[in-house]
Amino acid sequence: MLFDLFLFSCSICSASRLYPINQLAALQLPEYPYTLPSPPEKPTPSFSIGPHKIMGQAILAPMAGVSDLPFRNLCRKYGAGLAVSEMVSSDASLRNTRKSKLRIRHEGERSPISIQIVGTDPKQLAEAARYNVDQGADIIDINMGCPAKKVCKKLAGSALMKDERLVEDILRTVVKAVSVPVTLKIRTGWSPEQRNAPQVARIAEDCGIQALAIHGRTRACRFNGEAEYVTIKHVTGVVNIPVIANGDISTPEKAKKVLDQSGAACIMLGRGARGRPWVFQEINRYLEKQEVTAPPAFSEQKQVILEHLQQIHHLYGDICGIKIARKHVSWYTGYQSDGKDFRHHFNRLNSIEEQISSVQQYYERLIQQETNTE
To answer: Over the stretch 196-220, which tens digit does the pLDDT of each residue have?
Structure first.
């Protein structure tokens, strides 16, 4: 659903007018890049991917239409140890499309930069890996976990788990093609009857994969039901590379529970981070100090959202930027009791000026309510 929405919204982006940073600043946005009022404490290293030490035990999952450059930068500021890019096709004929170019933008992004590639042909994937290293990737991640029909019908994504020989061919070819670490994202299997993640994990380790992320559902389950972590526990028992647990993690308490149950080195957040980039700070503090951290004050949330809007419009332009901003602001305000009425209003706005003014007014009201209750 998110992947389809992103493709639709970006189909009209070629007509977008790009806003230079100085013009956006005139719209009373915070300075770019914005410095958080209370920067999160620097987490301690938890594991390494090749030469790269990953700080903390929470990283951002690759999500089509979500984990773009603005959102990755914001999550890293709040303590995400790594933020994997949206998946990029290995098809060289698509490299010059506007969508593909936007997905490999890395201005201001902290190292290590991880780019995820998707495809089915080993040589094509190897060439895509080399290309993305040339574009600045410190880590190449291979997608064998996406359950989307439009990906699986091409036998890419999680469909590859049905063919372990092809999995091995792809992994060996890509690892040999680049000098940077290669990681892999998979699901627990193709179906509940075929949970072959432990076998794929052993293949991955033998091929030189340096970290493995596992979503706790099969491809057949898509995002239905609850994620399970027993299979991930089996994987941690059969390989020596870092294993990253993913699926249904949205709170510090759940993060700790999953780490304890799975034996994973780290957890990966996807949907649980939408509208809550500060969740990484909350998780790191809970895991390191067993302290529960309250969400940022509304004054900080307002500034964070305005920064995010600024970066979205600078990257995508006015038409596409307006549509993508609607999606993120809906997630930000989804945790407020009166958020539904605001979202209905916000989604009808058709200019960056209106969007900024609306967010400012809405959060000023929340700030006033917060002050009155203190």
So the answer is: 999 999 999 999 999 999 999 887 7
- Residues 192, 110 share a domain: yes
- What are the catalytic residues? 146
Range of the domain at 262: 39-289
First to last CA, the chain: 41
Alpha-carbon torsion (219, 103, 120, 185), positive or negative: negative
121-163 residue pLDDT tens: 999 999 999 999 999 999 999 999 665 545 444 455 667 888 9
* Same-domain pairing of 210 and 347: no
CATH of the domain at 129: 3.20.20.70
Q: In the Cβ-directed half-sphere of 219, how many Cα atoms lie within 13 Å? A: 26
Domain total in the chain: 2
**Distance (Å, whole) CA 275 – CA 327:** 9
Are the C-beta atoms of residues 160 and 103 closer than 8 Å to each other? no
Tell me which residue of 85, 78, 86, 36 sits closest to 55, measured CA to CA: 78
Please list the alpha-helical segments (H only) found in 11-86.
21-25, 69-77
Say yes or no: 152 and 234 in one domain.
yes
Query: Number of C-alpha atoms within 13 angstroms, CB side, residue 135?
Result: 22
Whether residue 63 is found in the same domain as residue 180? yes
Element (H, E) at 205: helix 197-207
